[in-house]
Each structure stands twice: as structure tokens, then as C-alpha cells.
Amino acid sequence: MQTADPARANGSGGNARGDSEALDREALLAALNELLEAERAGARLSLNTVTDAGDKRLKELIATIHLDEVKWCGVLIAAIRALSATPSSRTGAFYEKAMAIPDLRDRMAFLNRGQAWVVRRLQSLLPRIHHPDIEAGLTEMLVAHEANIGRVDALLRAGR
Ligand SMILES: [Fe+2]
């Protein structure tokens, strides 16, 4: 999971907000590909989990998450291509780890932790992306992830 992304090494103790230097092309591509692999893992995980859900509301929610994750794969692929690069075809290791969790609710809780990682990643990246189209797509992705995390949390709490 090593990347050359200075934003990661910098953590939260670096530059003040608003004083964010743009990521260079290589760092931005590394970040976009890392997110693409994570979203592909989420898309596969939700696709292969939806049939396991007995509860109708949970099934619908997982199906919604699947469509969202597929959508973000498309957004990330378009962003990478806009930078004249070839998108990664890999799937994040998160997929195998999640599918190894037999209990559906435990797996959904694990999914939500992965989604929360995506949110933190986007929050740290966005101030350093000075490319309006990519920024707009990733902002939409951030908002949708926060909403889905809340929905999964609510359903998991209600089901206990
Ligand atoms: Fe995701």
C-alpha cells in the first residue's frame, strides 16, 4: 500500500487548510488508482453479498451501494484517462478480506470501515486536487460515501 503520495506521509500535521499545494500528476494518478482498486473491491463485494442478504431493506441497501461503487469506478477511470493514463485493472485486497467474513452483518461493518477509509482519503486529497472536473467527481463521491455509511450504520444498529 505504499505510494509516493506526500499527502499521506504528511498526515494531518502538515500545512494549514487552504494552503494546499496541488498534487503532482504522478501522486494524483497513484491516489486515483488506489481509490479505483478500493471501489472495485467494494463493487465486487457488494455484488457478491447482495444475494446473501435475507432482510429486504439490507438487500436493497447493498444493491444501492453496488451501483454507487460501480459509478465511482467509472468516475475514477474517467479521471485517470483525463490525465492521459491507463487505469489500474486490479481489485483491492479489501475484497478478499471482506469475503472471508462469513457473518453478513460483520461483513457490512467491515465494508463500512473501508468506506470510512475512502472518506478520510478523499478529505485529505481534495484540497490538493486543483483540477475542477476531478474535484467535482470526487466531492460527489465523498458525499455519497458519507450517506451510505450512515445508512449501513443505521440498519446494523436496528438489526441488533
Ligand atoms: Fe466505496
- Helix segment count? 6
User: Helix fraction?
Assistant: over 70%
Structural class: mainly alpha
Count of strand segments: 0
Termini gap:
34 Å
Which regions contain 5 or more consecutive residues with pLDDT less than 50? 1-17
How would you sum up the major sheet? none
SSE order, one letter for each helix or strand: HHHHHH
Mean pLDDT: 90
Strand-residue fraction? under 5%
Q: Cofactors and ligands present?
A: fe (ii) ion
Shape field = elongated
Question: What is the radius of gyration computed over CA atoms, rounded to a whole number of angstroms?
Answer: 16 Å
Task: Supply database-style keywords.
disordered N terminus; 160 residues; binds fe (ii) ion; single chain; mainly alpha; 6 helices; elongated; 0% strand
Written account of the structure:
The chain has 160 residues and is mainly alpha-helical. It is 71% helix and 0% strand. The chain is built from 6 helices and no strands. It has helices at residues 6-10, 25-49, 56-82, 94-99, 104-125, 132-159. Bound molecules: fe (ii) ion. Residues 39, 42, 69, 115, 118, 145 line the site of fe (ii) ion (FE2).
Please outline the helices and strands.
Layout: H1 6-10, H2 25-49, H3 56-82, H4 94-99, H5 104-125, H6 132-159
The structure holds fe (ii) ion.
In short:
With 160 residues, the chain is mostly helical. 71% of the residues lie in helices and 0% in strands.
